[in-house]
Amino acid sequence: MAFEHMNALKADAPSLLSKVAADPAAAGDSLRGLIEHSAAARELTSDPIWLLAEGTPWVGPQLNAFRVVTASTDRLLRGAVSPLIEATRQVPLETLKSPGGRLDMSVLAPLSGAAESSAAIAQSAAGAVSDIDRAPLVGRVDVAVEEADALFTRSAGALDAFSRATKLLPSMLEPGAPRTYLILVQNNAEWRSLGGISGTVIQLEWNGQSISLGQTISAAALTRLLPDAGSVLPADIESVYQSRPGRYFQNLTQIPDFTFDGPLARDMYQAATGVEADGVLSVDPVLLSYLLTATGPVTLPTGGQLDAGNAPALLMSDVYAKFSRPVDQDAYFASAASLVFGKLLSAQGSMAAMLSGLTRGVEEHRLRVWSANADEQRVIVGTPIAGDLPENDPETARVGVFLNDGTGSKMSYYLKPTVDIAWSGCPVRSEDARPDLTITLSIASDAPADAATSLPAYVTGNGRYGVPPGSASVVGNIYLPEGLELVAATMPDDASYETATIGTHQVVTFGALLAPQTQKTVTLLVRSTLTASRAEAWVTPTADPALDPVVEVDCVPSSPALVG
Q1: What is the per-residue burial (b if ≥16 Cβ within 10 Å, else e) of 255-272?
Q2: More confident residue, 503 or 8
Q3: Residue 220 exposed, middle or buried by CB count within 10 Å (0-12, 13-18, 19+)
Q4: What's the predicted TM-score (pTM) here?
């Protein structure tokens, strides 16, 4: 009977999470039915007979795991989600639209207390599920706990993000306190570690009462205004990336750490324009397409419309066939991005859809935020929007797989990276040897076979940096935090690799040249000294929203064989 209730929860919980992330107040009807199931399942699995049975060999651990999941589910729904939904009934998110037709983030402040409490309870419930000993679990129970663990982790992350947003946004847009922010619009058609080149910078102004857009300027134009020497970078970063991220605005996000890139962007922008920004945000055309789902299409000055369906292709591919001069391409890209943000800031469209799009962008590492205000930055640090380097924790080993274009072109639009991570074996006891981690990166080019002649010269690079037109050069950097160490690497063809250290991270750098319709694979064997049983790879977000920039795998020991 408890299993039937949990099956019903499993079927409906993901849609509830999506509703809560987008608009908590609208999720109330769905929540009531789930709470009925969770309460019934908890009652059925908490009686003395069940608890006594948990002490029996083999069967006991299965029953214990099932009870912990049911109890944690009930706690998550009744203790975390339900109070937050009730709070948002009092302050509907649609009130973010002020009477003047602008966004008013101050309405989030009253939700801060409820959101913080809900996030803490969700984190505690997720921790209880994560702490389940999976070594003795078998079959369907093992799979169910793995699925529950992923769902609880996602739930806790979403509620934590909402809690931080209720603190951060009212502070960043405090009434009576003017601020200037920079929006870097990356272009994933030319890869940089955090997505793509910073093609356009939009200056966002908060005058203490309303938000408006200031100047929009291309990264190429900003670079021309910079002093020749650019910004001086730390020696360890220069050993991997040379001086380019500090000399060319387009290369800022080559360094895969937005806690470094944010202040670097502010300093470079000030050197070029004299304007000192209070914070920096980074987005990409895929995130813009998510926001267009909320705002509806925008009409472009050149004619036609930009909408959620055509934005990625139009901004990262079609524009180069439409305009042959880079200055015109930059102007088109900048105009489109400004129109989307202009419509967003004028509070057009659905607030729920807007928050849903932003939430998806955060999950896919397409939205980064840095604040020059130390108190605000403390709220940001440790969250996905911070954009800092991958770090391990006791449960999870994290690596970064970051990709950069080496062609001087827009051929990254045609490249599809696939990352696979796998443990070599999983210890049953804590004193057992730690397993190795294998990281496999495959990059495929789906550029047309005649790309050298069928694609515009600006897209192929036209051989400007020694890469044959139609081919794509990729420079990869794989970041290994402390506790993970490279043992061996297999490179494509005769390609070589180098290792360096940035902070506490070992960085493995390699190159690959891909002709149209070809694929190259890199494999790293990594030794782990960690207690982590889960691994994640953070991958450069691409132009394809179907490619998840976060790859996860669990290390689950095989259950001991049963002897009759």
Answers
A1: bbbbebbbbbbbebbeeb
A2: 503
A3: middle
A4: 0.88
